[in-house]
Amino acid sequence: MQNEIGNFLEHFIEETNAHHVVFATKSGGVLDHRGFNFGEKIFSLTALVTGIFNATRELAKLIDEKNFEQFYIRGEDWRLFYQDVTPLFILVVFFKEPTLLGTVRLFGDKFVDKINSIFKQPKVVRIERREKEGEDKLEESTLDRLFEK
């Protein structure tokens, strides 16, 4: 399963021309990443992005919005796209021009479909939205299954 995810991330980089793509837990843990070498910074960058994602998700709840799934930030040189993958996971993409946002979004959606198809395989427990107190155990169980050989 881990190989499938890694292969899809490689394919993501090749097809979108993005600089870096990260598959992470919403608590900020990097599960897998590919692309431009950010070195140890990738862990800090991922933790910050997941913090922003979680804060924005809580903001959405306050205004009764349930569908904040994708986010895009554009700087002078860098662009950042991040997407809700499952209740436990997030996809983060760092890119510059000439990479197109539409291509990144398309492959983000394909990544979500790929992850969902992996979780529907018999060995993996299907992920469902849980109450806060159950998420830690669900996340631990899911991560264990993700990295089984």
Write up this protein:
The chain is an alpha+beta fold. The chain has a single domain, classed as Beta-Lactamase. It has four helices and five strands; from the N terminus they run H-E-E-H-E-E-E-H-H. Strands 2-1-5-4-3 form a five-stranded antiparallel sheet, sandwiched between helices. Helix 1 runs antiparallel to helix 3 (101-119).
Keywords:
5-stranded antiparallel sheet, 5 strands, globular, single chain, alpha+beta, 149 residues, Beta-Lactamase
Summarize the structure.
With 149 residues, the protein is of the alpha+beta class. It is 48% helix and 20% strand.
How would you sum up the major sheet?
5 strands, antiparallel
Q: What order do the strands of the largest sheet run in, or round the barrel if closed?
A: 2-1-5-4-3
Classify the beta-strand content into a percent band. 15-25%
CATH fold category name: Beta-Lactamase
The count of domains is 1
**CATH classification class:** Alpha Beta
